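**Sequence with structure:**
===
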Amino acid sequence: MTTDFTPQHWAGAVGVAVLVALWVDRRWGEPPVRLHPVVWMGNFLGRAGDRVQQRAAQDPEVPDYQAFGLAALMWCAGVALFLIAALLLQGAALELPWWAAGGVMGLLLKPMLAMAMLQSEVRAVEAALAVSLDAGRERLRWLVSRDVTQLTAVQVRESAIETLAENLNDSVVAPIFWFLLLGLPGAVLYRFANTADAMWGYPGIYKGRNWAWAGKWAARADDLLSWVPARITAVLLLLAAGRRGWALRSQLRAEARKTPSPNSGWPMAAMALVLGVGLRKPAVYVLNPHGREAQAADTEAAQLYASKAVLALVKCALLALLLIAIGV
């Protein structure tokens, strides 16, 4: 780092980085697969998961401490590898003037975010649903791990809206939150943990493999890192709906606690409340049960609330960084 890189310069660089990352995401979307760090994370986790499963017991009712320990070791080795790379890249960027450092860090931060892709995929589900129920189910299959074969048109739409709300945290708010706290290594840490949870964090048998113990470390790490950002995402969604949304805050906690996950229920419940719809996962939970059935217009409204929530996050982040820069 250059000797004159002060806390004010750091705040300026971080602010520039957030704006650059979101602009690049909106303008160009995802980088090519062969150059995408999250794809590299997935490749590592895929190979590591294969090694874990070679030694994992396949009875989810039997405690398997060997699989748990090996998976935890693989997780730590992988995150260390990517964190070292992030630290080296950030260190090189900070040798530049603060504004240039911010631009470079923004380009490095972008792959940790996926707002444009998220919105595009959710819109694609709605467009497919307009063609036929089967087409909508098939497109939804790209986004969720649940069985979609028996879902009604309303349930397909609800699942897409849930995905938008949940991944608003996972793909935007949480990476930016950890970037603001810890720089590029923070965003990389979160994205690795979230990717590991998506690949390993199942409570039992998934695709013929038992992750009940092999996936515990990954699931708990993601729960821990997502705890604060998920609640921030819920508040941002309420704020995006203005006074009407904020008036719903007293209902949020009770609705959010209905899901098995300690975190995903918060943004999903907030979205259900601001839209005035019920969001259901059959035989698991019903969020905002007195809400009406989701319509096509609600998918677009959900997109608008998500965009407003990100804008509110950026405004809050820039204000905090400005206060740091002026020494308040």
